[in-house]
Amino acid sequence: MDASIKSLLYSGTVIPAHPLALTADRQLDEARQRRLTRYYIASGAGGVAVGVHTTQFEIRWPEFNLYERVLRLAAEEIDKASLNRPFIRVAGIAGPTGQAVNEARIARDLGYHIGLVSMGGLKDYSEDQLVQHVAAVAEVIPVFGFYLQPSVGGRILSYDCWRRLADIPNLLAIKTAPFNRYQTLDVFRAVCHSERCDEIAMYTGNDDNIVADLLTVYKIPVNGKIVEKRFAGGLLGHWSV
Fold first, then answer.
1. pLDDT digits 0-9 by tens, 118-168
2. 3-class DSSP state for residue 12?
3. How wide is the angle at C-alpha 128 spanned by C-alphas 126 and 174, nearest 5°?
4. Alpha-carbon span 158 to 178, nearest angstrom
5. Is pTM, for the whole model, over 0.90?
6. pLDDT tens digit string along 102-115?
7. How many separate domains does the chain show?
8. What is the CATH number of the domain that holds 157?
9. Range of the domain at 225
10. Residue 228 half-sphere exposure, CB side, CA atoms within 13 Å?
11. Which of 129, 127, 191, 131 is nearest to 156 (CA)?
12. For residue 14, how many other CB atoms are within 10 A of its CB?
């Protein structure tokens, strides 16, 4: 990852989740899709996340087959902007390991910097398998971990699972969106206990607690010392509006 992109990711920024623009007959509206990307660039956002929940997970379905096309449209508009500042390109990555690795390759080849790995829909995976799943994606592209709330397809993950995920060398950030204070705290505890604590940027996705999340400093006791960690920024559907 480019040093300026990594610096912005760690220092913190606003990353909107890119919506999908459709025509009245529910076909991709390419002109408006491109215009949305230009809007986020012009608004001063620090990046954009494409292929995530607001871009609709159905773009991956074979009958639509829009994943690569939608990611390409955003990448082209970012390239055309010729920005003189860093702009983080986040690609949503979903599905079983084979699909996720393929999406990671598509995103990497289109110039995306990091993949937001959703573990939604993988309820038959054990926590060991989830760690292996994320590690496989991390071999292709840097990873943005993602704690998805159970009510929309995620699952409750143990402290131990997050502790192991934090040790994956190419995992550079985590979005916590369980909509639950205790589960959010589990992730902070896991990251603070990892030797990679300073190498992982924390981003809120808790739409129900955005302001409090951004104001909170977590103080975690680790081996007799207090380690402080806070959210660097947010990756939010709210911020696409």
1. 988 899 999 999 999 999 999 999 999 999 888 777 889 999 999 999 999
2. coil
3. 100
4. 12
5. yes
6. 999 999 999 999 99
7. 1
8. 3.20.20.70
9. 3-240
10. 3
11. 127
12. 17
